[in-house]
Structures are given as C-alpha cells and as structure tokens.
Amino acid sequence: MDARDFVIVGYDAAELLDIACVVAALECANWYGAAPYYKVRLATPGARPIDCGPTVTLQPGEILERITGPIDTLLVSGGSGSQDAAGNRLILGHVRRLAAESRRVASVCTGTWILAAAGILDGRRTTTHWRWAAELAAAHPEVRVDADPIFIRDGNVYTSAGVTSALDLTLALIEEDNGPELARVVARQLVTYLQRPGNQAQMSVFTAPPPPSDGLVRKVVDHITAHLSADLAVATLAAHAGVSERHLTRLFLRHLGQPPGRFVRQARVEAAAHLLTSTTLPMAAVAGRCGLGTAESLRQAFLDRYGVSPSHYRRTQSRAALQQAE
Q1: Distance (Å, rounded) from C-alpha 112 to C-alpha 51?
Q2: Contact criterion met (CB below 8 Å) for 238 and 248
Q3: How large is the C-alpha radius of gyration of the chain?
Q4: Looking at the DSSP assignment, which residues form a beta bridge with residue 74?
Q5: Positive or negative CA dihedral for 67, 73, 74, 80?
Q6: Is 8 left (phi over 0), alpha (psi -120 to 50) or beta?
Q7: Which three-class secondary structure state does DSSP give residue 279?
Q8: Is 5 helix (H, G, I), strand (E, B) or coil?
Q9: Is there a contact between 273 and 313 (Cβ–Cβ < 8 Å)?
Q10: How are beta strands 144-145 and 157-160 bridged, if at all?
C-alpha cells in the first residue's frame, strides 16, 4: 500500500470527540511528514450522516458496505449509540469482515461493545470507559475487561478508555508506525502532553465515579482514604463499621465491584502515584505514607497495577518531566 489505509467506523450517535481526536492527530502526522501518509476514511452504513447530538452532524465520505481490504488500521468509534450498533447485524458483519483484512484493529471508548459483539475481543484483555466496564464484562464474560488502563494492546487489537483517550491511543499508533519524534511533534502541535502510557490509570480525582450510595460503604471508604498508613485489614475495617467481615465484603462487591482488601491496595497505590508525581519524597517515605510498608512493596504494587516501576512512573509523569516535554 502506498498509504496507510485508516478506516474509522461510525454510526448514529457516535461520539464526536472519539472521531475528531483520531482524525486530527493523523492529519497532523501527515502534515509533518508521515511516510507513507495516512489515508483517513470515515465510513457508516450507506454513508448515512452521524448525528452527534443537537449541534453537530458528521457527513462520512465512505459507504461501509463498499470498503474492501487490505486495510492498515480499522478503528471503531464509541458513543451513546454503540450498544445499538452492537446489535446491528449489518455493522457487525462488516466490522468482522474488515477486521480479518486489517493489519490492526482498534476501538475507542464504548466501541468495545461492537468489537466484543463481533467476537473480535474473545479471550483478549481489553479496556473501555470506566463507567461501562462492569456492564461490558457482565455482557461478554469471554472478554477480559480491565477498567484501569488508558489503552491496551493485545496482539494486533487495541482498545482505549473514554473519549479523549482516543488521542493517547492515536499518538501511540503514530509512534509505533513512525517513531517517537513524529509523535512528539504531533503532540506539540495539538497542544497536549506527550501521550500518557497506556497503563496509566484512567481513574483520577477528575474522572472517579461518585461516592457509593450506601452510607456504610461510604463511611468505610472515607476512613480508608483518610488513614492509608493505618491498619486497614478487612477485620479492622469491619470492626470500625460495626458489621461482620462477610457482610462488609458483600457490600463492597455490590457497590464498588471489588472486595475491601483490593480497594485498599488500589487506594494506596493511587495515593503513591500522586505523591510520586507531586513530591520529591524518597520511595521509602512514599511507601510509608501510603501504607505500603517498604520501597520494595511499593515497587511490586506498582508493577502489579500499572505495569511500570515507581521510578519509571516518576521519571515520565512528574510535573517536571511533563513540563520538559511541553
């Protein structure tokens, strides 16, 4: 192929940003020297317009049914219409057909519903918008859903989290195709940081879900986050809440989707991540403040959750590092 054929699949009520982030990054890469360049095509069934809400309607340039391979990259966008699209046999059939003719396949946000319904994610580790991860996992038990990362690569299949993570994924694809320098150029031109690593958690103070509706669970969560360096064993937490360990575990599973012990470890590691990027505290001090004990325990917990060491995370994600990358 003289050009990298990059086909974006849309549908009614696809998310505008899911599409725009990808298109803008690829066209910027073309402008600044990708070779071969990206031939970006937006396709829908019958080339029907994409109603992105009351303000914007997109007019695709391609008829999905008429596209044939070979294709370099097939990407399925997300959006509020994704579950309806996942139940559309025509869309699923053509996504399945084109995926078999593509070098790599990707989705943004809830586009994972469509890839999952098409059987493309069976047995694969995948991510999606945190809000819909549990529902996707319940609907498709054959898919290994991980709500934490910004994007995941499993073989030649890439999935990304919510909305603007489309930009992180596309920057990663540009780097994979052309090297880090072009990815840096594109990031600068789009006035964004260099792409966040895919294993960086999508859940942050800005995107975290609302507090649990159950008053007792909320009380225990507040206690955990305020006393990370204290004894937070399940027995201790249950005693603090005045319930049995079994009942507390049942409540955490119902309202938070995970047992108390796992929630505590997650809260500690996320607090450590914040300290690593916002302070110059030694690793041992970070571990102590967050209840992780030793620097080695911190390292192992970080590797388990993010797939990188604490030192690597600090080096690439600290405020100083991000300012240097601007």
Answers
A1: 20
A2: yes
A3: 21
A4: 7, 105
A5: negative
A6: beta
A7: coil
A8: strand
A9: yes
A10: unpaired
Give 58's contacts (C-beta < 8 A, 6+ positions apart): 10, 14, 16, 19, 42, 49, 50, 52
Question: Which residue is it, tokens 């050009």?
Answer: 3
Euclidean distance between CA atoms 82 and 88, whole angstroms:
10
DSSP notation for 149-199: BSEEEETTEEEE-STTHHHHHHHHHHHHHH-HHHHHHHHHHTT-PSPPPTT
Q: Write out the two tokens for 3.
A: 């050009």
Residue keyed to tokens 């070979």: 70
Locate 24 and state its tokens.
Answer: 């803008």
Residues 14-35: b if buried by 16+ CB within 10 A, e if exposed? bbbbbbbbbbbbbebbbeeebe
Token output for 277: 């990027």
pLDDT tens track, the chain, 326 positions: 478 999 999 999 999 999 999 999 999 999 987 678 999 999 999 999 999 988 899 999 999 999 999 999 999 999 999 999 999 999 999 999 999 999 999 999 999 999 999 999 999 999 998 888 889 999 999 999 988 788 888 999 999 988 888 998 999 899 889 887 888 888 888 877 554 555 555 544 334 455 677 889 988 988 888 888 899 999 999 999 999 999 999 999 988 888 999 999 988 988 888 888 777 889 999 999 999 999 999 999 888 887 778 888 887 765 554 444 44
Q: Label residue 246 exposed, middle or buried (CB < 10 Å: 0-12, 13-18, 19+).
A: exposed
